[in-house]
């Protein structure tokens, strides 16, 4: 009898506070598919899950219309989508901690993000954006609006250099923006988990580039190591997210100027790749634990067009 009363009390507390409390019955659904390194880092038998208290079942689902039947009263299943497309389609029948469509629209498009920061009076936290090639200072950074991972980003040393880029893929016939080049051979990425514009958890990595004035990607990064972000840096990131009331995981790419001010290149509204690197399980576990702890069921009916089917992660 006492055990039954305790169980009812725990369930009432979960419903009241709107979070998933640590429980031996928490099931995690990895929603969507990504690259092999991501899927290995989040596999059901990956080392990270030994660090996430209360998780007993981890399943992967690929996008189809045939989601396995699950009770809508199930408060112990948390869905974690991988990319923006999966976030938009995340089933409402599970608990989650994800951004809304407006946040994704703003943060997944570099042009929309530049417009957003200008409208919110936050342009001082990002590199200046030039209206067009004739207005740009050189060298400048050319960015296609809809790509990530350093793809579609190049440094133009001159106007003729820029014109050459614009005649080539992936920029030809696609919208782009031009931004001021921020010097320095150290670029930072801060991973955050947020709720309603407040940062609940964060970690930071410093990426040393092969030289200054180049775009960071796997081929231009010589080392990546854990770092500690200054409180002023975290406050600046939170200021960028607050007008959106941002909820969910995100990763922020930036450099620090000689005066120590942040210059944010982009905010990706999802988990980030540097969390998936072998040896970074402690940081990935921190993000996942925070997501699970604060996940809640969203209002509104589930859309059967965006359901998933179970697949095995290995």
Task: Write up what this structure looks like.
By secondary structure, the protein is of the alpha+beta class. The protein has 8 helices and 13 strands. It has a 5-stranded antiparallel beta sheet. A 4-stranded mixed beta sheet has the order 3-1-2-13. Helices cover about 25% and strands about 25% of the residues. It is globular and about 60 Å long. It has 3 domains: about 1-95 and about 295-310, no CATH class; about 105-125 and about 180-270, D-amino Acid Aminotransferase, Chain A, domain 1, CATH 3.30.470; about 130-180, Dna Ligase, domain 1, CATH 3.30.1490.
- With helices defined by DSSP (H or I, 4 residues minimum), what is the helix count? 8
What is the total tally of β strands? 13
Number of domains: 3
Going by helix content, strand content and strand pairing, the class is alpha+beta
Uncertain parts = 1-23, 302-314
Distance between the amino and carboxyl termini: 42 Å
Layout of helices and strands, plus pairs?
Layout: H1 2-17, E1 26-31, H2 36-41, E2 55-63, E3 77-81, H3 84-88, H4 101-107, H5 110-119, E4 129-130, E5 140-144, E6 153-156, H6 159-166, E7 176-180, E8 186-195, E9 198-209, E10 221-227, H7 231-241, E11 248-256, E12 262-268, H8 281-294, E13 308-311
Parallel strand pairs: 1-2, 1-3
Antiparallel strand pairs: 2-13, 4-7, 5-6, 5-7, 8-9, 8-11, 9-10, 11-12
């Amino acid at each position: 009898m006492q055990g039954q009363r305790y169980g009812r009390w725990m369930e009432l507390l979960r419903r009241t506070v709107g979070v998933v409390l640590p429980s031996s019955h928490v099931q995690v659904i990895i929603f969507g598919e990504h690259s092999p390194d991501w899927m290995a880092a989040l596999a059901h038998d990956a080392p990270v899950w030994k660090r996430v208290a209360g998780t007993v079942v981890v399943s992967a689902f690929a996008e189809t219309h045939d989601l396995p039947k699950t009770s809508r009263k199930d408060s112990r299943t948390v869905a974690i989508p991988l990319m923006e497309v999966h976030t938009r389609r995340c089933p409402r029948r599970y608990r989650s901690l994800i951004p809304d469509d407006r946040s994704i629209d703003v943060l997944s498009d570099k042009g929309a993000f530049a417009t957003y920061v200008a409208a919110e009076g936050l342009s001082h936290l990002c590199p200046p954006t030039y209206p067009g090639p004739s207005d740009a200072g050189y060298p400048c950074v050319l960015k296609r609006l809809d790509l990530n991972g350093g793809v579609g980003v190049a440094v133009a040393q001159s106007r003729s250099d820029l014109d050459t880029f614009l005649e080539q893929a992936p920029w030809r016939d696609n919208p782009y923006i031009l931004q001021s080049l921020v010097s320095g051979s150290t670029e930072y990425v801060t991973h955050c988990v947020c709720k309603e514009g407040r940062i609940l958890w964060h970690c930071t990595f410093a990426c040393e580039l092969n030289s200054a004035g180049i775009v960071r990607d796997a081929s231009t990064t010589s080392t990546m190591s854990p770092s500690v972000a200054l409180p002023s840096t975290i406050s600046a990131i939170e200021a960028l997210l607050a007008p959106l009331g941002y909820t969910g995981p995100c990763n922020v790419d930036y450099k620090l100027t000689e005066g120590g001010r942040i210059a944010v290149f982009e905010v990706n509204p999802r988990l980030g790749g540097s969390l998936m690197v072998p040896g970074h399980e402690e940081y990935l576990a921190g993000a996942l634990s925070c997501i699970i702890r604060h996940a809640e069921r969203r209002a509104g009916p589930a859309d059967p067009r965006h359901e998933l089917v179970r697949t095995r992660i290995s």
